[in-house]
Amino acid sequence: MGKARTRYDPAAKFEIEVSEVAYRRNGAGRTLMARIYQPKGAGPFPVVLDLHGGAWNNKDRHAEEPMDRALAASGLLVVAIDMTLAPEAPYPACVQDANYAVRWLKAKSASWNGDPSRIGVYGSSSGGHVAELLIMRPRDARYSGIPLPEAPGLDATVAYAAMRSPVSNPFARFQNAENLKRDVMMNNHTTFFKPWETIHESNPQEILERHEAVTLAPLLIMQGALDDNVLPAVQERFAATYKKAGGQCEFHVFEGCEHEWVAKPGPQTDRAREMVKGFIARHL
């Protein structure tokens, strides 16, 4: 008999152990690493895949370390991964990495005392864009092309996604960067979306508006009221469109907060951590 699934108590406290392992080599020849935050306890623990932000062009598995540690200390096996960056390969390369990582965790997470039966995602900014595409298109051939020979029958279906400032409408964000004359942000988009038409093909807002056949797992969206990178009104529209399509979407605005507020200690960061833990508990 296998281990019984552990109930998740978001108020629990665990010591954690952090380790790293290579999970694949990308087309540019870079070894992508996974950083594993493992609670010390009986387990098995629910598994959360962390997808970092960085406007598709920057950052790595360390980007959300404070959030990852906080979640793991409540009894979640959190695995933060590197993803292919846009200068290495444009869309859909990083989505392919994430799709592969879900399947890889379903096959491997038990070795770190994880319960692979209901894997969830935490995504930040552009990592939230990737998370939304994972949720909506878990079996899409554009994303599932990296084989996992040891478990070819697995797919990338996930149970939920909790997100901070996700890029739910990348074209709207590009237009906002144009209006604000932010050349670096505009370049981040043109580097990632090649050919340019893919900014519409892979746009979660537009996917819903086109009434594509999609999977609608529960979402949590946390949005800063002062965010001038991903505009609150754009985010609110996505949440409403997702719910109109039949999906569950909790949308919360954090007053006085900008795009990356959870990187800094404070009451709103504490609130975000508790909100994510509570959301996960409800969907396990």
List the keywords.
alpha/beta, 8 strands, 284 residues, eight-stranded mixed beta sheet
Detailed description of the structure:
With 284 residues, the protein is an alpha/beta fold. 33% of the residues lie in helices and 20% in strands. It contains nine helices and eight strands. It has helices spanning 65-72, 93-108, 126-136, 170-179, 183-192, 198-201, 204-209, 232-244, 267-282; strands at residues 16-25, 31-39, 45-51, 77-81, 114-124, 161-164, 219-224, 249-254. The chain has an eight-stranded mixed sheet with strand order 1-2-4-3-5-6-7-8, sandwiched between helices. β5, α3 (126-136) and β6 (161-164) form a beta-alpha-beta unit. α2 crosses α3 and α4 (170-179) runs antiparallel to α5 (183-192).
Helix and strand element order = EEEHEHEHEHHHHEHEH
Strand order of the largest sheet: 1-2-4-3-5-6-7-8
Unreliable stretches covering 5 or more consecutive residues: none
Count of separate DSSP helical elements: 9
Structural class: alpha/beta
| Radius of gyration, in angstroms, nearest whole number | 18 Å
Proportion of helical residues: 25-40%
| Gross geometry | globular
